[in-house]
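QA checklist item 7 of 12: single-chain prediction sanity check.
[x] sequence parsed
[x] length recorded as 689
[x] structure emitted
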Amino acid sequence: EAALTALGSLPVNPQDVAAGFFDRQRIFQLAERVRALVEGLVHLIEDRLEGAARVKNAAAIILGAKTVISYLQMKGQELELSELVEELELAFPGNLRTHLGRWSKARFSQAEAELLDDVSEPLAELCGRLNRMLSHTTRIDADFYAVVLPVLAEMMADVHERMRRRGAHTFSWLLRDAHALLKDNPETLRIVRRGMEQLFVDEFQDTDPIQCSLVRMLALEGPVEERPGLFLVGDPKQSIYGWRSADIRAYADFVAEVLSQGGISHTLTTNYRSSVPILDEVERVIGPVMKPRDGVQPPFVPLIPSSRAIEGSAFDISPRVPVEHWVSWGWDDGEGAPVIKPSAAQSAVMEAKAIADDLIRLRRESVISLWSEIGVLFRSTGDLETYLAALRDAGIPYVVERDRNYYRRREVIEAAALIRVVADPCDDLALLTFLRSALVGVPDAALLPLWRRGLPGLTATLDGENEEVLEAILSMVREVALKVPEGVPGLERVDGWVLNFEIAMQHLNRLRRSFLGDPADEFIDCVRGYFLLELTEAARYLGAYRVANIERFFRECSNALQDSGSDLDALLSTLRRNVRESREAEEAKPAEAAKDAVQIMTIHKSKGLAFEHVYCVQLHKESAAGRGVSAKPVELEWAHQTGTLECSFFGAVSPGFDLVEEQRKEVEQAERIRTLYVAMTRARKRVVL
């Protein structure tokens, strides 16, 4: 299931998976990478070890490398994958791999250091790569893939066919199909081109290869007279969405292509946001580590402060200065006492309290007039609650920037179902959603018996007048409740559901009468008055946000009814479409948060925003990239070096997946630098790191 879910979101055809990843060419490419590593090792150190004593392990490593070279020369392109893996295990057994690991960290014995000191740096890098290659080959399992891939491909084909029949598509498939449509249908491409005069692409550094190809077909290919003008805006130093397939290599290649076709490049380097000391610190911190590398890292370009920033006085309200580095360590009292390095959790508590204390002082001393002038930026939200708790304890209002998931929020879906079940007696899906909602809480174990006894048909006849139908429904639920087996998991959490159901049916009956006879705005008021959704949602997790969403929902319902002349059918149609399509819309915020509150968000969410004071927290926290192999059940990615699709399936990898991991590591390391750059440049007056 996990594999199918992952595969279903990727623009990969079932036949791509069924074709396999173990053709002879890929195995030969793997062997060539092994050859380059072992030959490099021999050339680097063999001469230095000749005749040397006390370097037995080093000599064994050279012997193993030369054995592999001989094997590869003998086999040529006829080698078998299983033989290659076995040969590597024999040439580099566990003790030699441990020794390679020490060398990869430049840890040498005294005798080794005397012989290898002048090549220690390239040797450490080479041994690290060889060790990773040896680990990679042990994870290759062709027999496993031979069994799994045909099964997966068949299941994928079934999933795709079901999605096609339902009209369901993922974002990546939309991109892939749009690309295929234009590529395979020249006349359609011409029609689309002719419909555009100018094509403007903002945030171009966040595009992926298939998006670049779409823009290329529209604006760089075909007859010049058919093409639209092309205007791109992008800053490769702010490319921080590699995990979402943004590809700085594709960006750089595309820009080079535009320039080769006579495009004009303008560089914008003046910063109108940050003060001079902040920009100086950005250059001091980022400049030395943002080293240019083709397809991985752009060159650092210093930002020039605006004339207003140069002429104005920098923030300086003692003891605060425009740039502060806080170190999240503890210490003992007394001169010369040792520094206490805390755990990551202890550091989070320490930082959270320090930020809360600092904010209270800023407000008390009138350094800030609005809480909304403050931005607290996170690399990830794993420890978010620690920081929120500190702000709550200090009485500081805050708002957490959330995704555009308004129509996916459970409280919004359930409120929409409530309106629909009242206004459309035949909407069985709305009835089911309503009964399972927090307003009623019917356990799943009771739903099928209720449906078998004809509950949907009975509730459809409720009209505010027919008390006999209402009594029949209430009798039915009491009968079903007696037959729900004890011990059903979770049943204790909906204790009292029968009473909830009875009251809900009575309210539904009255609301059907209101729907038929009252003005639309009075009907909406009756819905809110009978069911009190705001009270229910306020008691749940993040209740203030849920209430804000409910208030917004009913406000929009009232506005829609006013705009349509109380056309409830139009409202129902809109509600169904919005929920069904999960339309993107910003979630509502609590009223007090919307007015004035500290802004809490990830660095990725902050891109394009600015704050007077910015706190970049947990910069000490270890990156997930440094903690080993990804735990995702299935990964399919293109390896730039070979142009092949590579796979990792529950730890079993294809021959070229090491290239994917290598390029991912490069991208993640480069993006960590760019992410800090984005965070630091959000600040106007003061940045705390």
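[x] summary fact logged: The CA atoms of residues 139 and 652 lie 5 Å apart.
[ ] second reviewer sign-off
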